[in-house]
Amino acid sequence: MITEKIKHILIKSLSLNKVQVTGNNNHINIIAIDDIFNNKSEVEKQQMIYTQLMDYITNKTIHAISIKTYSLKEWKNNQKKIN
After folding, report:
1. Residue 71's Cα: distance from chain center in Å?
2. Domains and CATH numbers, the chain
3. What distance in Å separates the CA atoms of residue 68 and residue 80, rounded to the nearest whole number?
4. Which of 9, 13, 27, 74 has its CA 20 to 30 A from that of 56?
5. CB-based burial, 5-29: b 16+ in 10 Å, e otherwise
Protein backbone atom coordinates (compact mmCIF):
# COMPACT_ATOMS: atom_id res chain seq x y z
CA MET A 1 0.00 0.00 0.00
CA ILE A 2 1.29 3.47 -0.90
CA THR A 3 0.80 4.89 2.62
CA GLU A 4 3.14 2.30 4.14
CA LYS A 5 5.76 2.95 1.45
CA ILE A 6 5.61 6.69 2.11
CA LYS A 7 5.88 6.17 5.86
CA HIS A 8 8.91 3.91 5.38
CA ILE A 9 10.60 6.40 3.03
CA LEU A 10 10.12 9.32 5.41
CA ILE A 11 11.26 7.45 8.51
CA LYS A 12 14.30 6.04 6.75
CA SER A 13 15.39 9.18 4.89
CA LEU A 14 14.65 11.79 7.56
CA SER A 15 14.90 9.64 10.71
CA LEU A 16 11.63 11.06 11.94
CA ASN A 17 10.42 10.35 15.46
CA LYS A 18 6.85 9.73 14.32
CA VAL A 19 5.00 9.74 11.00
CA GLN A 20 1.34 9.20 10.27
CA VAL A 21 0.32 8.66 6.64
CA THR A 22 -3.28 8.21 5.55
CA GLY A 23 -5.23 8.42 2.32
CA ASN A 24 -4.88 6.92 -1.13
CA ASN A 25 -3.07 7.74 -4.39
CA ASN A 26 -5.39 10.65 -5.06
CA HIS A 27 -4.74 12.40 -1.76
CA ILE A 28 -2.15 11.63 0.91
CA ASN A 29 -2.25 13.16 4.41
CA ILE A 30 1.06 13.27 6.26
CA ILE A 31 1.74 14.24 9.86
CA ALA A 32 5.49 14.29 10.53
CA ILE A 33 6.94 14.81 14.00
CA ASP A 34 10.56 15.41 14.88
CA ASP A 35 12.91 18.08 16.15
CA ILE A 36 14.45 18.40 12.67
CA PHE A 37 11.60 20.85 12.08
CA ASN A 38 12.82 23.22 14.82
CA ASN A 39 13.79 26.66 13.52
CA LYS A 40 12.56 25.87 10.00
CA SER A 41 10.04 27.92 8.05
CA GLU A 42 6.84 26.25 6.87
CA VAL A 43 8.22 26.22 3.33
CA GLU A 44 11.45 24.51 4.46
CA LYS A 45 9.46 21.88 6.36
CA GLN A 46 7.29 21.16 3.32
CA GLN A 47 10.35 20.95 1.08
CA MET A 48 11.96 18.40 3.38
CA ILE A 49 8.97 16.09 2.89
CA TYR A 50 8.39 16.80 -0.80
CA THR A 51 12.04 16.14 -1.66
CA GLN A 52 11.78 12.60 -0.30
CA LEU A 53 8.60 11.88 -2.29
CA MET A 54 9.49 13.58 -5.58
CA ASP A 55 9.69 10.32 -7.56
CA TYR A 56 6.13 9.43 -6.54
CA ILE A 57 4.91 12.93 -7.37
CA THR A 58 6.58 13.22 -10.77
CA ASN A 59 5.42 9.78 -11.92
CA LYS A 60 1.92 10.68 -10.69
CA THR A 61 1.67 7.84 -8.19
CA ILE A 62 0.72 10.58 -5.73
CA HIS A 63 -1.68 13.24 -6.96
CA ALA A 64 -2.03 15.53 -3.93
CA ILE A 65 -0.41 15.79 -0.51
CA SER A 66 -1.42 17.50 2.71
CA ILE A 67 1.55 17.89 5.07
CA LYS A 68 1.57 18.93 8.71
CA THR A 69 4.90 19.05 10.50
CA TYR A 70 5.60 19.45 14.20
CA SER A 71 8.59 19.54 16.49
CA LEU A 72 8.25 17.20 19.47
CA LYS A 73 7.32 20.16 21.69
CA GLU A 74 4.75 21.46 19.19
CA TRP A 75 3.20 17.99 18.92
CA LYS A 76 3.00 17.64 22.70
CA ASN A 77 1.34 21.08 22.97
CA ASN A 78 -1.00 20.27 20.07
CA GLN A 79 -2.10 17.03 21.72
CA LYS A 80 -2.95 18.83 24.95
CA LYS A 81 -5.24 21.18 22.98
CA ILE A 82 -7.03 18.24 21.35
CA ASN A 83 -7.73 16.38 24.60
Report:
1. 12
2. 2-82 (3.30.300.90)
3. 17
4. 74
5. ebbebbbeebebeebebebeeeebe
DSSP string, 22-54: EEETTEEEEEEE-GGGTT--HHHHHHHHHHHHH
Query: For 60-69, what is each residue's pLDDT tens digit?
Result: 888 899 999 9
* pLDDT at residue 83 is higher than 50: no
Contacts for 65 with CB less than 8 Å, ≥ 6 apart? 27, 28, 29, 30, 49, 50, 53, 57
Strands 18-24 and 27-33: antiparallel
pTM (two decimals): 0.87
16-38 pLDDT, tens digit each: 999 999 998 789 999 999 999 99
Q: State the CB neighbour count (10 A cutoff) for residue 78.
A: 13
